[in-house]
Amino acid sequence: MVDLYFTRHGKTEWNDKGLFQGMYGDSPLLKESYHEIALLGQRLEDGCFTAIYASSSERARQTAAAIVQQLTYQVPIYYDDRLREMSYGKLEGQSIKLMAKKYGSQLSAMRYHLDRYDPSAFGGETLEAMLKRMTAAVTEAVCSHEGNLLFVGHGTSMTATVQFLAGKPFSQLRAMGGMKNNSLNLMEKKPDELHYRLKIWNDTSFLNKE
Predict the structure, then answer these.
(1) 158 and 138 in contact (C-beta within 8 Å)?
(2) Cβ-Cβ contacts under 8 Å for 53 (sequence gap 6 or more)
(3) What is the pLDDT of residues 121-160, one digit of tens each?
(4) In what order do the strands lie in the sheet with 49-55?
(5) pLDDT tens digits for range 39-53
């Protein structure tokens, strides 16, 4: 049995401004995010990771590197393009509020009902395409290592992937809400089981530590 930890990158400047980031859009982490990332790293100390896999987007790379600084042992970080956020096409870099006025039904589906999500109007990535690359990245990582792993990624893609790996249908991928920045999420995988078992979802209790 292996434990798989998942987290979303620290809060960024575009998060703070309410702008879409996505697969290609990116912005620096907020300075105050590094304090929360340090607390997450301290919480993850007992994970005894064999490896860390992170999205190749800079915000995820910065988060993974800051987590490692809190660990008392050496662990390699592998950056994988397949762990990037869902592509939002023409929405990336745009105001979420303004785009909601133009694509309200689809952005609502993205947030609450991914089974109804159709990004064709703005050239975005489909749910099926995103899950295919994300689950392939996770599965290959699990097959390449015998120990526990940490995955550092993004809100939409990581939320859907964790819930999908837990056996949820498309209609339920957002039922538990979206993955929060710097949250701790834990799954376990037994060799004789098809699906991964979700043990911890969106734990941020440690972020209140002074």
Answers:
(1) no
(2) 77, 78, 79, 80, 83, 137, 138, 141, 149, 150, 151, 152
(3) 999 999 999 999 999 999 999 999 989 999 999 999 999 9
(4) 77-80, 49-55, 148-153, 2-8, 184-189, 197-203
(5) 999 999 988 999 999
Q: Which of 86, 110, 106, 96 is nearest to 16 (CA)?
A: 96
**Exposed, middle or buried by CB within 10 Å (0-12, 13-18, 19+), for 176?**
middle
> Quick one: CA dihedral 155, 194, 130, 102, positive or negative?
negative
Structure tokens, 77: 């970080």
Which two three-digit tokens encode residue 46?
């007992």
Coil, strand or helix at 49: strand
The separation between the first and the last C-alpha atoms of the chain, rounded to the nearest angstrom, is 34
pTM comes to 0.96
| Spatial separation of the C-alpha atoms in residues 42 and 67, rounded to whole Å | 8
User: Is 22 exposed, middle or buried (CB count within 10 Å of its CB: 0-12, 13-18, 19+)?
Assistant: buried
Give the whole-angstrom CA distance, residue 2 versus residue 82. 21
User: Is 195 in contact with 174 (CB distance < 8 Å)?
Assistant: no
Structural domains of the chain ordered from first start: 2-208 (3.40.50.1240)
Which amino acid is it at 69? Q
